[in-house]
Amino acid sequence: xxxxxxxxxxxxxxxxxxxxxxxxxxxxxxxxxxxxxxxxxxxxxxxxxxxxxxxxxxxxxxxxxxxxxxxxxxxxxxxxxxxxxxxxxxxxxxxxxxxxxxxxxxxxxxxxxxxxxxxxxxxxxxxxxxxxxxxxxxxxxxxxxxxxxxxxxxxxxxxxxxxxxxxxxxxxxxxxxxxxxxxxxxxxxxxxxxxxxxxxxxxxxxxxxxxxxxxxxxxxxxxxxxxxxxxxxxxxxxxxxxxxxxxxxxxxxxxxxxxxxxxxxxxxxxxxxxxxxxxxxxxxxxxxx
Length: 289
Ligand SMILES: Nc1ncnc2c1ncn2[C@@H]1O[C@H](COP(=O)(O)OP(=O)(O)O)[C@@H](O)[C@H]1O
Ligand SMILES: CC(=O)N[C@@H](CCC(=O)OP(=O)(O)O)C(=O)O
Prior knowledge:
Keywords: Amino-acid biosynthesis, Arginine biosynthesis, ATP-binding, Cytoplasm, Kinase, Nucleotide-binding, Transferase
Subcellular location: Cytoplasm
Family: Belongs to the acetylglutamate kinase family. ArgB subfamily.
CATH superfamily: Acetylglutamate kinase-like
Order of helices and strands: HHEHEHEEHEEEHEEEHEEHHEHE
Number of strands: 14
Structural class: alpha/beta
CATH topology: Carbamate kinase
Pfam families: AA_kinase
Radius of gyration: 19 Å
Strand content: 15-25%
CATH class: Alpha Beta
Number of helices: 10
Shape: globular
Bound molecules: adenosine-5'-diphosphate, ligand 2
Largest sheet: 8 strands, mixed
Pathway: Amino-acid biosynthesis; L-arginine biosynthesis; N(2)-acetyl-L-ornithine from L-glutamate: step 2/4
């Protein structure tokens, strides 16, 4: 027999579902690019929960695109070879030997782990990198970083083909260079360029902090472009948060409707952000002033 408390829980669950209706309607047919950072990919359970959210989003009419990172997995593989990477403003200095490890780890281990997780939840994920279908071509903008690319030319045709077949693209941030070289592209930059070429409704940057913090360590619920520049100049936004906030600004300038930086380790982070009044993390959207 059910207890009164159990029935209350079910009534609350039904209410939550009912209150999601306006959000379900808002995102029906929307394109949502989700960047899953390496630090947000913790346990297999967390990965399954993330994959379940993405499959649910697709089930209710969203075209989800996953772009992933994998910095910690690359570090672990390089450490086995006794190599420690240097980072400049959140980007890995990538020599010829390192780019081989980067591609192997991102397009192989990390990409397929996510593909499998989505497929286990009943979705149809297809793992690709920026090289496939000419999706993302980059150029070296800072030779001191080695084989690190900035996306310059995008071709989203393959992504539209996958959407039309209800498949979920899972994209490793590796691109081709103009001379056939392989380029390591920061996961955030790749996600931003993909979101911009798709004119996505939302870009969710999932990381390991609740959002962008101010000098007092408080999470800011909303950020303007001016505020981001200020916090960066003051040294409050540092390291891996630099490519994220840079990406947010570029994505907005490129036609993405809003970017959210949020904690991907929190259970159901994507659902909370899209389908509840609560929202999550730090929202960056075009200046309306
Ligand atoms: N102002 C800030 N607010 C929040 N996090 C910040 C800030 N400045 C730097 N960070 C750092 O950025 C990190 C997220 O970037 P990164 O480690 O590259 O994550 P990911 O692997 O998810 O891409 C946080 O864990 C935090 O240490
Ligand atoms: C140029 C550059 O820094 N590329 C990143 C690509 C992976 C990534 O972005 O991983 P996270 O999202 O986990 O940080 C790297 O080599 O680590």
